[in-house]
Prior knowledge:
By secondary structure, the chain is of the alpha/beta class. The chain has helices at 35-49, 72-82, 95-102, 127-131, 134-139, 159-163, 174-183, 185-188, 204-213, 225-234, 250-267, 306-317, 338-349, 359-367, 383-390, 395-406; strands at residues 15-19, 26-27, 30-31, 53-57, 87-88, 109-111, 145-148, 170-172, 195-199, 220-223, 271-272, 276-280, 286-290, 303-304, 321-325, 353-357, 377-378. A six-stranded parallel sheet has the order 5-6-4-1-7-8.
Amino acid sequence: MAAFHTIDDIPADSRVLVRLDLNSPIEDGEPQDNRRFERHAETVRELADAGHRVVLMAHQGRPGRDDFTSLSGHAAILADHIDHDVAFVADTYGDEAVESIDALGAGEVLLLENTRMCDDELPEASPEEKAETEFVQTLAPRFDAYVNDAYSAAHRKHASLVGFPLALPAYAGRVMETEYEANTAIATREFDGPVTMVVGGTKATDVIGVMDALDDRVDRFLLGGVAGELFLRAAGHPVGHDVGEMDLFDEQWEANRELIESVLDERGDAIHLATDLAYEGSDGDRAEVAVDDIDEKTEGYLDVGSETVTAYEPPIHESDAVFVKGALGVFEDERFADGTVGVLEAIAETDCFSVVGGGDTSRAIEMYGLDEDDFSHVSIAGGAYIRALTGEPLPAVETLEAAAAEQ
């Protein structure tokens, strides 16, 4: 377990500044409810019920993007999840924010405006530099404790994530605790039986790096998605390149070709590749073709085929631990959900330690009526999950650990 303090350790009746990650899809200008609100609600509810004065920080989007909006709508969604009023102030550390913070009563909750609307927040810099920003220097004196619950943003060196732990006693929220423990399990836990990793998604560069880093921790990899097709290309099949308007394969192939070929050469016996692939047939229905029967890639392949799903089930059933990074197909279209859902169902049936990572893949659990309780952990982190799997440092976690060592 990480060497940081948790919200159980906060002294009674504290003024607590809490960093969440409520970054959400925006539709028609409104944030959409999602798993992040539900998860972070546990931390906020516990702090409010304990009688602390709770002030929340979060971000939404990034300057210049369509989803860069105010957090006013987020407050209402969060309030529904914690069954408790969440006040909102359209300011982060100006006079209006400070007045609202100072007026807060015991057990009350206040959400500040989007942290990324502050000039001090975004540029990546050292925790020491971030701690000296006006943002941190203005808010920190008004609080007794800082809580970081934003594990999914822990790979960022932003002021709200790494500056405050140098200025205040710092603690981990429930999401930070559970995400850290589950996502570092592959590096820190001993498993009696085989460890399997399901690798898919569209960001092949990420998952290939994970495969390389986890070489000695994973007994077998089950591949699909873009990464799976690139590995098939490395194995000599005429797939794994762009056709038509597609822009997914060629650039990632050029960037990763040597690494893919070396991983395949060194760990070929541990790497399970698709034996058939699915595509949209001329009638609009799902069609499948055996990989060995492909002479030329003329279609965009959107899922692994049914033979592959069947072949992937036994290795999963025999595993002591299964980690998932990325979907095996375009599961948002139910015609091409068989691979992703089939593998998730096999994991759910298996009495193993299981982590399903990446926001997109975890959505399939909800979309197709699977029970989240059948998995040890369903992660809401993307970039931080990748970092944890590859053993790269997470700056926001490191600052929590450093703060604990000094407290």
